Every structure is written in structure tokens, then in C-alpha cells.
Amino acid sequence: MGLIYCPFLNSQIPTIGLIGSYPFNGNADDESGNDNHANFYLVTTTKDRCGFSNSAFYFNGIDNRISLPAENFVNLNDTPGRLV
């Protein structure tokens, strides 16, 4: 199983209420400017559907994951937001 990211969609991402932006570019850094960086656990980068290297992540469905630090999202109950 893999996740797919299409670079041409960047211009369509809303910025109001944006919590995090993870463009699948080989790392788990939040590029929204909010510093909500994620952590990889046994995730492998791979080619996306267009053949671009390090533009998608491969998950084996067993123990791979990308996690976000919960403390960064504690006060979101009253704040509508988006992760992209």
C-alpha cells in the first residue's frame, strides 16, 4: 500500500486553518510553517505513480506508520483545521 501525492495540487491547498502540510518529498517535515513535524517508523520512500523518486511512501500494512506528536494537537477541539 502506498500514499500518492501529486505536486500540481499544491496550488489548490487551502491555507486558512491549515495545521500541517506534508508534501511527500522524502521527509516528514511540516511545510505549513506550523512546525508540526511527523516521525517515520519503518516507512520506505518510493517512486510515485508518475515515476518521481522519493515522492511517495510505502507501507507494509503491518508495522509501518507516520505519527504526529499529540501535544501539538491538544487544543484543536475548538479550532477547525486541515492536515494536507
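Second entry:
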Amino acid sequence: MRRKITTPFREFNEKLRESCGINLKEMAKKLNITDSFLCTIEKGVKPVPIEYIDKISQEFSLTKVETKILARSVFETNRYVIIDANDELWQKALKYKVDGYDK
């Protein structure tokens, strides 16, 4: 039996999809990415691109609180990825000021 690989980002997306009544393929289409890529980043096989915080937030009209929860799930999923602190996207991500991840 295959074990489901879960990450905080995947858990967030599954709840979001459930509340919107859509599946993974439909979410990927809304985000203009392939369903296989969405599945790959949800499993943590590849890091979640930081710009997806804005992309998901805007596409699904998330509140500020929901966007902070999404940002936290992205950072927790990516926690083992080495990030260049001078990177423009990383600087943009800091604007979310997610507790524990904005230092």
C-alpha cells in the first residue's frame, strides 16, 4: 500500500480545493501550471516557488490571514531548501512577516 506524502503546503491546498469544490487538475489550470508540477511541489519533491503565495492568494481571493497561513505552509514545506537571502523573491516573501520565518 502506498503511503500519502503530505506537507503543510499540500494540506493547505487540499483544504482550499475542498472549500472551492475543485480538484487538483482544476486548481493547476487556474494557476496556469501542470497538475503534475502542482503535485510535485505539494509532495515537497521540489520547492514551492515563493511567487505562488501571491498567485494562489489572488486567484482564490484569500484574506490576509489566509495568505499568512499559506505563506507559513510554503516556508514550512521549503524549510530544507537553501535560499539566497539577497534573492528578490525572498525579499518579497519577507513582506508577509510570517512568525518565525521573517528573521
